């Protein structure tokens, strides 16, 4: 395999994770050398015997021709962090994805990107507000980023499409499967309407629960700011907001009724330094600073 294909293959062994792969690359100075390294050499650099054994098994079963053929058949492209087209907003982040699988128009990533996220179990208020926010921003040429989940994410993507704007859906699984399955038509629409599907997981990788917390850092990382519409007290939305704060992104929280449990996450964020969202002009002003 070429050096680039070796890097893609290496990143597809999800057990390593981006940080460990960067350390291995630093030691071996080449993805191809990491991929071809003996088990003893991998043990010498500090990998556990269990991890080395697992990687050896994965490597022995990996079929490069089949893997890259599958990408081509599914019209999935790959960006590695050394590519010029790799998202600039992610390049300097700690723990950046080594490889990103993309389907659709990567031109979406050249525009100002704003994440709109929130509860899967949205209220009528959340439905209306998330739609209006995403529609207005998308109609102004701002790319809407979200996670294709039920609820607020679905509203955000759908509103951007309706506004003839651009939207990016970040997956927590391989791009050859849609999760949740009921959003398959929405995923197809995103691609057809010059939007983008993106994931750090290779084709065939399942939507495991732990994937979505990792996925959230990409949603916030791609974006100049994150708008949180609704979320319960222990909502996963708070993980996206936390990742955004760690990355130096501005977090906006949309206030909701004090009688609603779904106002808990926005209120918590407002109490801890998030900016109050009153209109899309707040976000536009942030982009202009």
From TrEMBL:
Gene3D superfamilies: 3.40.50.450. SUPFAM superfamilies: MCP/YpsA-like. It holds the Pfam family DNA_processg_A. Signal peptide: none annotated. Residues 78-287 form the Smf/DprA SLOG domain. One of its GO terms (biological process) is DNA-mediated transformation. Belongs to the DprA/Smf family. PANTHER family: PROTEIN SMF. This is Smf/DprA SLOG domain-containing protein. The lineage of its organism: Bacteria, Candidatus Woeseibacteriota.
